[in-house]
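WARN no homologs supplied; continuing
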Amino acid sequence: MPAMSSTPSDKTVSPDRPAEGQRPKYRIEQVADRLQTTRRTLRYYEEIGLLPPAERTEGGYRLYSEDDIARLERIQRLKDLLGFSLAEIRELLQADDERGLVRVAFQHETDPAVKLKHIEEAERLSRQQLGVVEHKIAGLEKMRDDILERLEHYTRHRQELHDALEGSAASPEQAANNP
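OK structure emitted
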């Protein structure tokens, strides 16, 4: 977006022209276009808690930050590329959010005993996420094993059919050579 100059009488902040020092905000249609999704999907993610409630303009339009867009990109990656359900994604993101709060508390804490408690909580949250990922991996490995078994089955049957074809082709020759 091109930089806009402001005059002393121009104090209105809009998504297209943030105040000095503020990061730009994007309207829902801009975000939907950028992420190649629908506005309805973005609203739905907000409704079910995958995305925090969007900031609003005075006119009620949703505004999204770069952090919101990064979170949406992560949701898309988890859903489309890695095949996580929305419930699994919610669990992973909630653990991320909680771990972020723990990180801030850890950074502001001076008591080593309390810092240790924060580390233990961050570890618990990470293990919770690992459980979700391992469950997904186990399901994918089971699916992979089923497909490999099916392919082995096809290979065996194909070999049996090749053997049968070779056997039937050899039979007329054997009959001609053995009067």
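The beta strands are 26-27, 55-56, 62-64.
OK
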